[in-house]
Amino acid sequence: MVVKSEAKLVTLKINDQEVTVPEGTTILQACQTAGIEVPNLCYQPLLRPWGSCRICTVEVLGRRGGLVESCAAQVREGMEVRTHSPEVLKSRQFILQMYLIDHALDCPTCDKSGECYLQDNTYLHNVHLNPYRRPKLAKPYTHLSDVIDYKWDRCIMCARCTRVCDEVIGVTAIGVLNRGLEAEIGPAYGTDLREGTCTSCGMCIAVCPVGALTDRRFGMHPWELDATETICGFCDVGCTLNVEHSRGIVRRVTHLWDRGVNHGYTCERGKWGYAQVQHPDRLETAYIRQGDEFVAADLDDALDRVADAFRRYQGDQFAALASPENTNEENYLLQQFTRAVMGTNNIDRLRHRGQSGVSQALRDSFGRPASTNSMQEAFTDTQCMLVVGPNIGETAPVGSYWLYWSRNYREAKTVVVSHDHFPLCDRAEVWIKPPRGAEARVIDAMARIILDAGLARPAESASAGFEAWRASLAQVDPEQVAAEVGIDVATLRRAAILYATGGVGEVDGRDLADYPASAIYQTLGTDRGADAHPAAVALNNLALLTGNVGRAGGGVIAFRGSANFQGATDMGCEAGYFPGYQPVDDPEIRRKFEAAWLPRWNDAAVPQNGFKPLRELPATPGLDLDGMIAAIEAGQIKAMYIAASSHEYSPGIDERLLAVLPKLEFLVVEDSFPSDLAKLAHVVLPGAMFLEKDGSYTNADRTIQRLRYTVAPPGDAQPSWWFLQEIAERLGYNLTYRHPSFVLEEIAQLTPIYRGVSLPRLERGPLQWPVQPFGAEQSVFLELGDGLAPEAVRFVAD
């Protein structure tokens, strides 16, 4: 267990209330801790103090006191603070009057009306007359991009927008142009925002405290909207979204600061991706193939046809593929249906080559196909970050924000190994650009340098396979690898030493155990066409070599693209494992699931076409996706149920699978959009998307979160769990869950790593598995033996 030294505490008085906070806390943060509201305009969570708006002014009593900006002034022992003294209020009123000299008073038509910080504070401080007047200056809207407008005469020059763009998003797409009265916000360096580095994340709009930067797609007022807090379904970072909707239509996504794994920050997909949910091309009805044509069908008729067909394929003639974007509950039910109703372990996720390689590498190295650490450790412990794979700014955007934040605020070091060129490459201490597929060679060369420099420190409990792996490195020549990549060996050595020493750099004589932690962020699993296994294994070995597994701020965080790929894996959508990575060939485990699942058979069910109630679960592992493709080709698998999630951001379908699916006798596809996969189906079922479901998701770092129903799905579209229950009932198997919450309760009972999880508990906030009981300290990283079998952690010679 890692024990962190506690920060020194400081006690002060705020409005005669004693408050104790860590040293270095600002007065504003101390006020927030005590539940005392202090107005502010330029302060923004996660951004450095700015102190330009002066609205957060408070009074410090005593000889060293006076009026200070609470967002920038730090607390002192014994300090006494007044937040609403007469002097403070007078100061704030004067500042507001200064702002209102040129500020447009078009509140009734302003997009920000009802949630404008300036409007709120003007009312709060009773500023109804302004002795400082002149004819107002005004300018027309400036269209910065297809989604962003700028209104100069509303802008208060708080620089929130430019700071978030630079310090968190890391692209510096906008800046403050000119000075004084001519200052305005615009594209940095004179470039067109649509042609520069802007990622269209919309964070500049989100942090603007007034109506200066506005959403061109939004034309309503906040009091017209209902809001639902839920989880984004477009990547496996798992961001919390505040989805605002009216009359069943999503109007915009806003931000809940300091909430969720994203702390309120979002990317382009999170901000604007709701357009996919209400896209006019969504599937709204079931379709049945008649010859070469698809005919719209009544949903009950389509489900009857599915059930009648499935009766002929019980056993290993059947296979299922789960969507890595469906909820944990839906994926749990699909694997249960496959095993307990159809009598086969032929179940896998709908995945591509990159996801497969990374998952297998994690299992080979750590015994579980899961990340070892949490993204949140970037805020507290990580001092060096090794980023490997495709552009993390596109594949896991909000995950990349914490890398920029750690560099800016904690002076963490960054090493990038990527063929892609993205903003982090230009800010990193070292950027190595290997040819595609050569990442493993670079990582092995770094490992060889670390070994030769005497910086290896593998934990004794994680040294299995070490000697064999070290012997395999004998053939790795760092100078040759550097030449292949097109860099000098000194650059390669610098990258290796920075990682091995937690960003310290060249060896300085300290004990190896005293070096800070280094984390690996890898996006290899998002590259659908590459074999990611060699590079992923090399990275896992590197983390073990430097003692960064089982250490806060270290380990490996693997992004694999799909929103719930980790959850689908946890739920047993694998040929050889029940939920929670419990082997299907273990008799004791199998009996546990038989006792839970098999009593659900309806005793009145009549065997038809060889279909009959099962009395035991299949005992041997089934076929994974690769095996299914071969079995379809050979005519051994004849029917399939595929849960897909086609949309603009989906990772796509394996071309090998699409090539063999026409050979099936019967194919059911559940999807949200017409797709190449749906065109091959015999029955197409219209699936709901993430904003139309209840349940839970598990993100890339094993964090389980609450997904909430926001708007109704279009037409006859339904969530996957509803389809599975309807089909199972027609086959004589009673799946009668009234709500996904009951499914999650069963998951928690049967799956040790999810024990204690429930939707009511997730209402309090996210949980990271293995989940601790109530009252216990939640584990934020996988220690050796904490959720992992120690003997499963090993070096692997790929």
TrEMBL record:
<feature type="domain" description="2Fe-2S ferredoxin-type">
    <location>
        <begin position="8"/>
        <end position="87"/>
    </location>
</feature>
<dbReference type="GO" id="GO:0016020">
    <property type="term" value="C:membrane"/>
</dbReference>
<dbReference type="InterPro" id="IPR050123">
    <property type="entry name" value="Prok_molybdopt-oxidoreductase"/>
</dbReference>
<dbReference type="GO" id="GO:0042773">
    <property type="term" value="P:ATP synthesis coupled electron transport"/>
</dbReference>
<keyword id="KW-0520">NAD</keyword>
<dbReference type="GO" id="GO:0051537">
    <property type="term" value="F:2 iron, 2 sulfur cluster binding"/>
</dbReference>
<feature type="domain" description="4Fe-4S Mo/W bis-MGD-type">
    <location>
        <begin position="225"/>
        <end position="281"/>
    </location>
</feature>
<dbReference type="InterPro" id="IPR006656">
    <property type="entry name" value="Mopterin_OxRdtase"/>
</dbReference>
<dbReference type="InterPro" id="IPR019574">
    <property type="entry name" value="NADH_UbQ_OxRdtase_Gsu_4Fe4S-bd"/>
</dbReference>
<dbReference type="GO" id="GO:0046872">
    <property type="term" value="F:metal ion binding"/>
</dbReference>
<keyword id="KW-0408">Iron</keyword>
<dbReference type="GO" id="GO:0051539">
    <property type="term" value="F:4 iron, 4 sulfur cluster binding"/>
</dbReference>
<dbReference type="GO" id="GO:0048038">
    <property type="term" value="F:quinone binding"/>
</dbReference>
<dbReference type="InterPro" id="IPR000283">
    <property type="entry name" value="NADH_UbQ_OxRdtase_75kDa_su_CS"/>
</dbReference>
<keyword id="KW-0472">Membrane</keyword>
<keyword id="KW-1278">Translocase</keyword>
<dbReference type="Pfam" id="PF04879">
    <property type="entry name" value="Molybdop_Fe4S4"/>
</dbReference>
<dbReference type="InterPro" id="IPR001041">
    <property type="entry name" value="2Fe-2S_ferredoxin-type"/>
</dbReference>
<protein>
    <submittedName>
        <fullName>Molybdopterin oxidoreductase</fullName>
    </submittedName>
</protein>
<keyword id="KW-0677">Repeat</keyword>
<dbReference type="GO" id="GO:0003954">
    <property type="term" value="F:NADH dehydrogenase activity"/>
</dbReference>
<comment type="similarity">
    <text>Belongs to the complex I 75 kDa subunit family.</text>
</comment>
<dbReference type="InterPro" id="IPR017896">
    <property type="entry name" value="4Fe4S_Fe-S-bd"/>
</dbReference>
<dbReference type="GO" id="GO:0008137">
    <property type="term" value="F:NADH dehydrogenase (ubiquinone) activity"/>
</dbReference>
<keyword id="KW-0874">Quinone</keyword>
<dbReference type="InterPro" id="IPR006963">
    <property type="entry name" value="Mopterin_OxRdtase_4Fe-4S_dom"/>
</dbReference>
<dbReference type="InterPro" id="IPR054351">
    <property type="entry name" value="NADH_UbQ_OxRdtase_ferredoxin"/>
</dbReference>
<keyword id="KW-0411">Iron-sulfur</keyword>
<feature type="domain" description="4Fe-4S ferredoxin-type">
    <location>
        <begin position="189"/>
        <end position="218"/>
    </location>
</feature>
<dbReference type="Pfam" id="PF10588">
    <property type="entry name" value="NADH-G_4Fe-4S_3"/>
</dbReference>
<dbReference type="Pfam" id="PF13510">
    <property type="entry name" value="Fer2_4"/>
</dbReference>
<dbReference type="Pfam" id="PF00384">
    <property type="entry name" value="Molybdopterin"/>
</dbReference>
<dbReference type="InterPro" id="IPR036010">
    <property type="entry name" value="2Fe-2S_ferredoxin-like_sf"/>
</dbReference>
<dbReference type="InterPro" id="IPR017900">
    <property type="entry name" value="4Fe4S_Fe_S_CS"/>
</dbReference>
<keyword id="KW-0479">Metal-binding</keyword>
<feature type="domain" description="4Fe-4S His(Cys)3-ligated-type">
    <location>
        <begin position="87"/>
        <end position="126"/>
    </location>
</feature>
<feature type="domain" description="4Fe-4S ferredoxin-type">
    <location>
        <begin position="144"/>
        <end position="174"/>
    </location>
</feature>
<keyword id="KW-0004">4Fe-4S</keyword>
<keyword id="KW-0001">2Fe-2S</keyword>
<dbReference type="Pfam" id="PF22117">
    <property type="entry name" value="Fer4_Nqo3"/>
</dbReference>
